């Protein structure tokens, strides 16, 4: 053992009563031999010293970055506390989903969470698993994409203990898959427009699939201590797709409805919801007709358990259930017939069975019996006879003998349970008729499917009975499938593909399964069946036989006789050892209805009762109660199977009833056969606390579930093997965008698939240890595909960006051209406007000048005239003198050109014909202003529009002009009158 692994500062997990606490190494020194002496401090600051080696030393903690990794398979230290802390810290951040290799862990939030909004649904469409946060929708999308890829059937297995959230998760998965948008949108073709229409109303099929929920929940769910809406049966819903991958229908299969609940409930639990809903929701007239009352406490089958959840919610749910029945085609009349059977069961439970001295007795006019028989269409006296008596058939004769009251009660209850189970089976058949068409047409049209299995998780209580035995048997088989799927098949493939691979050990649970189901030598179920058929069979003799036949060295690892419990046996399950109490095993396994009662019921006067029994007893291989249409083609889709409640020797005649254990075994077998044909996706639901409190996390409880669901083992298997394998061609086609665009198509043309694979992996800089080439396939370790997918989407996004950029450049070019045209046009028009103003000013000034000249001339003439009249010479000013001598303007004329003048508006312009008003420039340089004014006046004079480029009116900046017409002070935006400011439209990638 090296000290560097535990250098000071190393983060570790320390054992505590509540599991583990985080801690840190203070110091590490060598002890004797291989051992280390560690001084540690836990998170509460308490110090402790540990001396030892190997497993005695604390487990290592992951770096903070990985501590809440969204895939547990990426944890660098993969141990129980790391896994637990990762799930816990994510849950604390309100992240309820975490990947664990190929499994999605879902921790129940116990309150509505904003994780299933239409926006979130949209964001998962067409996205690869791992691209976004872990989510149920990612698994559903993965299954859908896998189905699109090769048309293979898919199954999403949702498991977990009661109340962990299986049913809710399964519903969400189905809602996602059945959504019309998911079906029309492939991973490669998603557009924003597509995504936006996702939330458009549900399709008809989706409505029908959703309608199954209130029905199955009303008839198959009940309030238990662990869950107010606990499903008391397992179900497999198969969504069927046609060649265009459009959903065409669905099929529902159910497993092992809990029958005992009908006649008995614990004080804190309830019977099936439907009974309370019936009492709360039926109008009083109907209640009266059925002999019911809104106070359900008068019925023995309803008053043993705890209070109703809420009368209001029962009433609402009843109406929702009635609507759902209508959607699947069960009209009001048929509904009333169903309610009659249900009330018959409640009345059956109220039949008063008394104990006479030795025998059981029932009053001939017992009102409950009369009502029940009326609704069931059975003769009351015959019913009474066979409830308090039994008939034993020997070789030579039939002997009828009385039974005791408790035995008669058992007979009565077994009949109720049997009828209820038949009704449930009939309903499932009716649902299937609605979802697949009368003759299973949808199933016949279907090409492929996605199934969602919502099944009870591993159970272990203080007292475990026959139900736990069956549930754990189912989980053993599912775990075996999981191991086979992830591991065994993987290894077989490695061998077939000749890749170098070292076989790693894994806990194969086949011996446990053999112990439970084997026929030869007989396993537990076979021994139970054998004992159940013996008239004198008992729980004690069953246990004796178990111990005699199974407590052998060969079974040492899987079968144990508990030391302290004498009426029990222990099985070493893959999750943990569970001790089962044998009491009640035989009775529950038999769950028999006396032959006489069966005959009475199958020949009932009530046609609907006959139909219900007939459907449940005889329909083993068809979808509907109707005879199959001769024209209906055979479905390609494997059927998860429904085993009849009875094996018959003929319709409605002698019925040999199989035991519950054998029914369950056979339906599980069919289910497993079907799972083997599909790609399987796993969702493990976890229950964070027993009190159903939101966001409360009890580490030890979750740890037990993590162990039971085999999460650690899963991670080990996933990370050890090559979970992804692709045919060279499939891989090449998918990742072709990664390689050089000149080389790629050439290689495709020459079908050099392997070469393309090599180039793709080189592009992704994938380490050699992370992949291997087989004969026909490439094998990849976990994470490689995610890297390549990331690169691929980066490349595809880059192409998209390039296109966007080019479109932008072209749009800008067009815009600039447009801008120039606008500016040119504006220059032209402004130039023209200024020239016009200029001409007007000039004309005005000229007129004024001429007027002044004329007035001066007139004045001079007047002065001359005056002088002449007066006969003397008129004195002139020096300026006037100059003017006279030089022929140039006088003082006043010069003043007209003075830019220093305050009176700018009186700016005078020179006469183009060499007016005598020209300033006297000879002998001095003109001032700059004078020169500019002269230039200005000359250029403007020509009125040549082609010279607008040299116009004195110029733009100061592309979008601002100063104009002479506005005194040069007002600045006008160029585009204001001609165009809007350019704006970027992201959807068209154009400037507008
Ligand atoms: N994703 C979720 N968001 C919010 N609440 C949830 C979610 N999943 C489960 N819940 C809550 O947990 C309760 C129990 O869930 P659900 O009925 O699905 O458990 P389950 O595992 O199917 O139990 P059972 O095996 O007894 O049928 C639900 O009624 C609901 O209140």
Automatic annotation (TrEMBL):
The keyword Magnesium does not apply. Keywords: Actin-binding, ATP-binding, Motor protein, Myosin, Nucleotide-binding. Residues 959-969 have a biased composition (Polar residues). GO terms for biological process: actin filament organization. One of its GO terms (molecular function) is actin filament binding. The keyword ATP-binding applies. Residues 620-654, 851-969 are annotated as: Disordered. ATP binds at residues 160-167. Residues 668-690 are annotated as: Actin-binding. It comes from the Eukaryota. Pfam families: Myosin_head. PROSITE patterns: IQ, MYOSIN_MOTOR. GO terms for cellular component: cytoplasm; membrane; myosin complex. Residues 67-793 form the Myosin motor domain. Belongs to the TRAFAC class myosin-kinesin ATPase superfamily. Myosin family. PANTHER family: DILUTE CLASS UNCONVENTIONAL MYOSIN, ISOFORM C, MYOSIN. This is Myosin motor domain-containing protein. It comes from Favolaschia claudopus. The lineage of its organism: Eukaryota, Fungi, Dikarya, Basidiomycota, Agaricomycotina.
